[in-house]
Amino acid sequence: QNMSLSISPGQTAAWHQQILEQLGQRSKREMENFRHYEQAVEQSVWVKKGNM
Amino acid sequence: MADDKDVLRDVWFGRIPTCFALYQDEVTEKEAEPFYLLLPRVSYLTLVTDKVKKHFLKAVKPEDVEEMWFEYEGTPLKWHYPIGVLFDLHALNTALPWSITVHFKNFPERDLLHCLSNSVIEAHFMSCIKEADALKHKSQVINDMQKKDHKQLWMGLQNDKFDQFWAMNRKLMEYPTEEGGFRYIPFRIYQTMSDRPFIQKLFRPVSPEGHTHTLGDLLKEMYPAAIAHDGDSKRFQVLIQGIEPLLETPLQWLSEHLSHPDNFLHICILPVPTD
Fold first, then answer.
1. Whether residue B52 sits in one domain with residue B22
2. CA B104 to each of CA A8, B44, B56, B74, B154: distance values in angstroms, whole numbers, following the listed order
3. Which of B114, B136, B225, B246 is deepest in the core (most CB within 10 A)?
4. Which ipTM value was assigned to this complex?
C-alpha cells in the first residue's frame, strides 16, 4: 500500500496553490491578532518540524 | 512552495479565538469576567474547555451548577461536531473573537448529547474513525491496529500532539496505488438551512471509467444548488476547514489532507452573506 502525502506534478495546479494561499489567509484572519490569547490545550513543546 | 505536510500542520494547528461569557440570567455570586481562549479547530468543545468551567464555577452558586453547555446566538452548540465545523457553520462571517455563551442550567435535551466525561468524547471520536475506515478500507486498517494504537490516536487529539496522532493516522490514509484512492470517501455535508443534521452517502474518489472525482463532482450529486453556473451569481459558500477549495480539487486529496482527525471530510454549505 502506498501513502500519497507527497506532492505530485499535478499538485502545482491552481487548486493546490489556492488551498495553500487560503490556509495562509485563514491563519492570518483567525490567529494574527489573537496570539496573546491562552491556548485551550497547553503545548509544552511547539515543534515546527517532525518526521512522519 | 510549502509541501503537503505543511498543509496537515496548518489544518491541525488551526485555532479559533473565542470569548466565553456566562449567560446573564444564571445567578452569580460575584461578577463573572469573560474568558478568552484559542480553541483548536480540530478538537471538541467539551474536550478543551476545562479552564472555562473552572473560571465560571467560581461565580456560580454550587446549587445552580448542572452540566455545562454552550450556545451561540440562541443555537446550542453540538459538542460532538468538531469545533471548526461549529464555527464555520454558525459564525464564519462574523467578527472575531467568536462569542460563546456558557450555561450551567436548563440543558437543552432535545438539541444536545450529554457529555459528562472525556470517555464519552473518546467513544464518539473512535466510533467516527471506525465508521470512516469501514468506508475507506472495509475496516481492515482500524481492525489491524492494536488497542494501544487506537489510544495513540485519541491521546494525540486530546493532548494536541500532531506527531503522535499522525504517526498512527497515516496508516488510515493509505490505499492500493492501482485503485487510485479509498473505497469510498468519508464525508459529511452540513447546511444551516435544514433540520437534517448532515448529508452522508457513498461516493467513490474515482469514477467507473477511471476519472478522478473532484469536489465539484461530489457537490453535483449531493447538493447541486451549491454549484454556481455560468452567468449565475454565487449563492453558496462551500467550506472545508474554514477555506473554500476550488471545485476542481480532487476529492481523494481533500480526504487525505483536509479531513478532521475523525477521518471525515466535514463540508459546510452556507448562503453567501448578503450584506
1. yes
2. 51, 18, 9, 15, 27
3. B136
4. 0.92
Among B48, B96, B245, the residue with its CB nearest the CB of A41 is B48
Same domain for B249 and B224? yes
pLDDT tens digits, one per residue of B180-229: 999 999 999 999 877 788 999 999 999 999 999 999 999 999 999 998 77
Contacts of residue A20 in chain B, CB cutoff 8 Å?
A: 1-2, 6-7
Q: Which domain holds residue B155?
A: 117-173
Distance from CA of A37 to the nearest CA of B (A): 6
Question: Is B130 within a domain?
Answer: yes
Q: Which among A19, A29, A40 is the nearest to B38, CB-wise?
A: A40
Dist CA B272 CA B172 (whole Å): 35
**A13–chain B nearest CA distance, Å:** 9
